[in-house]
Amino acid sequence: MQLHRQIEVLFPELRAYAGAICDARHEAQDLVQDAVERAMRAKAPPRRIDELRPWLFRVLRHLHYDELRKRRVRREYSEGERRLLNETPQMGGTERVVLTRMAYAKLPPACREVLFLVDIMGLKYREAAEVMDIPVGTAMSRLSRARRHMLDLLGRDRPHGAGEPSG
């Protein structure tokens, strides 16, 4: 049986499993779509349906946990950024944009690249990893380091008198 036909047969089970592990219906639908896409692009997916079924369930599960990790990292990044903004006096939007762009320009090229792909262009970790031709885990760790580096630069680049003693 061809892969797409096997996936059609398994589709109700995939939707049911995704619905069981996701909080929202639209998340479950997206998860199934991503898993099917991954299966169709796989170089050597299991040929027999009894092997394909658990393989697809694992793909669903891994994609789900990758998404949860991504949300956690973004939430932590946002909280850190909010904390940083709350520690400094309120600066105008233009000043904040200029300082952010200056900090971004100071980042090493690899940090700028991953931040651009994920945070600016909105690519998923997997997509960014494909663009950079690196493993997904490497893309995730580079992004984490790049975000931390960016926050460090923004913290150091605050003007004197902005909540910090001047040397």
From TrEMBL:
InterPro entries registered for this protein in UniProt: RNA_pol_sigma-70-like, RNA_pol_sigma-70_dom, RNA_pol_sigma70_r2, RNA_pol_sigma70_r4_t2, RNA_pol_sigma_r2, RNA_pol_sigma_r3/r4-like, WH-like_DNA-bd_sf
Stretches assigned to the RNA polymerase sigma factor 70 region 4 type domain: 103-150
Gene Ontology biological process terms, A to Z: DNA-templated transcription initiation
GO molecular function: DNA binding; sigma factor activity
Keyword Transcription attributed: yes
Location of the RNA polymerase sigma-70 region domain: 12-72
Keyword annotations of the record: Sigma factor, Transcription, Transcription regulation
Family: Belongs to the sigma-70 factor family. ECF subfamily.
Protein name (Swiss-Prot/TrEMBL): RNA polymerase subunit sigma-70
Organism, as annotated: Limimaricola cinnabarinus
